[in-house]
Amino acid sequence: MLSGKKILVGVTGSIAAYKTAYLIRELIKLEAEVKVIMTKASSDFISPLTLATLSKNPVAIDFVKDEESGEWENHVALGLWADLFIIAPASANSISKLVSGNADNLLVATYLSAKCPVWIAPAMDLDMFKHFSTNENLSKLRDKGVHVIEPTEGELASGLEGKGRMEEPEVIAQLIHEYFMADSILKGRNILITGGPTYEAIDPVRFIGNHSSGKTGILLADECAKRGAKVTLITGPTNIKVKDPHINVINVRSALEMMQAVEKLWSGMDIGIFSAAVADYRPLEVADEKIKKSDEELTIKLVKNPDILLWTGEHKRADQYLVGFALETENEVENGFKKLAKKNLDLLVLNSLNDKGAGFGHDTNKVSFLKTNNKIRSFELKDKSAVMADIINEIEEDLES
Ligand code: C5P
User: What are phi and psi of 125, to 5 degrees?
Assistant: First the structure.
């Protein structure tokens, strides 16, 4: 997924501009944040309204937003906002302006301000593409680090056949996806994730458990695997299937089994993300036979389970990174910071119970990240998989810094 990635899409005057609508849709599906800049000529081919609706952001075309108030479009801010600037389609005219730096429109001005990687997907008639002017311009851009997505061969709008068709939107979106994934600092790293509930046996047929579905652990594992990490997921009982065959799944039932698995694996890991809803207590004794309902009252003596995350924090080396979760009902931030310190964590994900749509039984969640030095970062309510991507982005940023 491209969650957290900011993609600026530039559109120039070519019939292929209609394909940009599909490109934007693909990028949004991959959860990227998308903003669009169009040249005036491109708006003859596709309406700004279409691209604004698909990108979920207003489209920028002119330097001046509102003549009366003097409000202007900040091309410098747009250029700095983007993690990647893709100009698709890139017409022969716009390509030449990129080379000469002729900033007579917002798109080229933004290109000159952009600090991020710039990609272009040329689209034009075959003879225009073959022309030495276009060739020279493209090779100059390549020399300066602009990534050119080669056009494909086929039928062109002119009716002629040849090379000049803009690459298909799905392919461009996939290339962008691969680019960001290849980029991940998590590639090849060993990540240990705990998830799911634990079941604490009372007798051969009964247990003490909780309502955790195991979804969080699996979403975290998916997100890390997608970024090329070597993931081991230790999960308590869950009905959700782990689809990614690259994830090494270890199924456990009780806290003690989870503890044993973590003890065995932790020293070989680079990162730990502990999201399991571990039962705090277990029955002192497990009856060999099913307990009969003979007496009016039944007392089960419980003993404390090991705190797996605490043990892991105590055995954390300087090169290891550890993430825990907390769900507090009062003084959440204060207690969260205490937990971060006590368990020797690098990141504590604080779940909110006080917000609508957050917490148990929802597909959305609202979290804050607590870090050492009293640093706190709060997020709005969002889809659970987007929350997982935010967590993994945060780990990546910390490892990169
Ligand atoms: O202390 P508390 O239970 O609130 O901490 C929650 C965090 O600790 C979660 O990350 C959970 O996975 C982890 N935990 C654990 N072992 C326990 C209890 C909690 O790993 N016995």
Answer: -70, 155
May I ask the CATH architecture of the domain 6-181? 3-Layer(aba) Sandwich (3.40)
Helix (H) or strand (E) holding 152: strand 152-155
pTM, 2 dp: 0.66
Residue 191 CA to ligand 1 centre (angstroms): 18
In whole angstroms, give the CA distance from residue 200 to residue 104: 70
Provide the CATH topology of domain 190-400: Rossmann fold (3.40.50)
Q: Same topology for domains 6-181 and 190-400, yes or no?
A: yes
Cα 390 to ligand 1 centroid, rounded to whole Å: 20
Closest CA to 321 of 206, 400, 226, 213: 400
Mean pLDDT by 10 residues, the chain (401 residues): 90 97 96 96 97 97 86 87 96 98 96 95 96 97 95 91 94 92 88 98 97 94 91 97 92 98 98 98 96 91 98 98 93 95 98 70 85 94 87 94 87
Of the residues 210, 251, 335, 344, which is catalytic? 210
User: Distance of alpha carbon 382 from its chain centroid, rounded?
Assistant: 12
The first and second tokens of residue 172, run together, are 């461009």
Query: Whose C-alpha lies nearest to ligand 1, atom 2?
Result: 326
